[in-house]
Please model this.
Amino acid sequence: MNQLTVQIRDRGVFTLPSELRDKYDIGSGKIYQLVDLEGVFVLVPMIPMVPELAQEIEAIRKESGLNMEELLVGLREQREKYTAEKYGK
Model:
């Protein structure tokens, strides 16, 4: 196990050593979840779900034979129904 030292700066900011950033492909703009295991911090990469969800929605759309306009109309109707049920509007 390799031990590295980091210093906490203003506002809790610290820099991960480049050795770790390179090893685990940690780069600017990537999102991580910080898990606190009773004082042991674990950095977990968040896997973007948007591309996967978009592919699933597109597959369902094609399978159902809907065009994009029909899909959007259906989504609007569902949103209105949900809003009316939840908020009585």
